[in-house]
Amino acid sequence: MSASPSTLSTTDSANTLAVDPSPDVLDMLRAQSQQLSSLLSKTNLKKAPLFDSPLWEGAVLRIDLSAKNQHLQALDAQNAVQLEQYIWGLMDSAGARLALGGYAESRAWYKRSENFVAEGEIRSEHLGIDYWVPAESALFCPLDGVVHSFRDNVGAGDYGPTIILRHELQGLEFFSLYGHLNRESLDGKFEGQRFSAGERLGAVGNYPVNGDWPPHLHHQLMLELFGMRGDFPGVAAKSRAEFFLTLCPDPALLVSPA
To answer: What CATH number should be reported for the domain holding residue 25?
Structure first.
């Protein structure tokens, strides 16, 4: 898919995208999202888990980090240690080594960084799935793809080291993003580098390298990048949530459990 510059354009600020989609663009994205959902649901598609089997053993905790979670209001959103203690406390209580969640979740904690302000509105609608795992957990490619771009998005609240892969299924091109990695994940990477499903892609980073977050992977799908490289908004303003959630389908479609 391609869109004219008059409908969509990137901005100079990290993690932002100026959006004024036409009805035709939205209709095209909806059709592509439905097509991708159908393709990724095929049982004969070779997919691989993002993490080693031991992380999936036992309980897998689905965690609520939405604005409705009153426990988060008592935490300092600027303090990665407090957030980590809260998340790992929940995981320990559940006997889980992995927690996940967050797609289409409305969150309040993005006030922690100016990265999450677009045109005077705080971006709060989360566009990917977060996988909360120990720092340095190995990350594996879930589907055959090639490196589109990569970058260390430095700054508190940003992605830190980030990789974007390009995939193609039956002529439909789409992209997957892996954010909050360690810096070693970018070593030796080059655009056009091929990765097979199940091949090691990198590892989860720790704060402050990963954007100063508790260790986790931000995983996201995009139907179009609109010229962005090594970075893409992972959170949208509420006023633009419909467009961005159409542009960024649920990444759970891509992931195979261990």
So the answer is: 2.70.70.10
